[in-house]
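User: Please predict the structure of the protein below. I'd like the answer in structure-token form so I can feed it into my own downstream comparison script.

Assistant: Understood. Taking the following sequence of 306 residues as input:
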Amino acid sequence: MILITGVSGLLGANLLFAAEGHGYEVTGVYRQHAMHFPAAETVRADLTRPDAASDLLQSRKPEWVIHCAAATDVDWCEDHPKDALKTNVDATRRLAVAARSIGARFVYISTDAVFDGKGGPYGEGDPSRPVNVYGETKAEGERATRAELPQSLIVRTNIYGWSVQESKPSLAEWVLGQLETGSRVPGFQDVIFTPILVNDFGDILLELLDRGLEGIYHVAGSEALTKYRFAQRVAARFGYPEDAVLPATLGGSKLRAPRPRSTPLRTDLVRKLLGRDLPDVSMGLMRFKQLRDEGYLDKLKACRGG
């Protein structure tokens, strides 16, 4: 059985559906927003409580723990560093300890934000030098994971996709939402990344689990581009004019926390393991639109409980 934390979030919810589709028995864990999936058990747990991780894993006895739950709002983390530390580091450490105590394999989902954005593309062995509290806590979460469970799997990424919570849209959803209301969309010309559709990420992650891998791996899109260009590609895929996206710069934004400017991830290790290239932006956005056209977003929203 796979236990997935953070199933009320973008990654956790989509990963749960992917795991079900691959035939796994799954238990999903949420903290505040109740979730009810058709073929999976869900349980509420506040993993920031000292005994929560141990109690949860001792009662469920999963073979795998995939830790998706995190405080991911970069500005919120900057304003609430102690709370970000509790969620992204302390809870991660306790969950890794609990996994070790029952002999479960542990997967920690990390981010390209552990890098400073001054170099790149970044490989798995490059030193992490985060520029904000969010990145610092995720990097510290990686270190805590390795310290408590050296044979764990750590996967860095940068995802987009359909979110179960409307209040927390992914970048692609936010762009589309602005376009649908007739608004112009600012896109950073000075921020470069390698985005991957969350559904593609989930499929690849499950392949890595099947291989019993440990260590650090990057799972990201095969194409590095600016957020400005990414927003244009979203617009084009959904039939909107690309000039509805306006060039903007990170320096001219009102974002409170500093952001790394260039964090493309090298995926050579995973590509060699899988024997194929990872999806590019065109492939990801094609599937992104296809999922909506097929009613996948409605399927996600139907899982929100009271």
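That's the full token string. The chain has one domain: 2-253+263-301.
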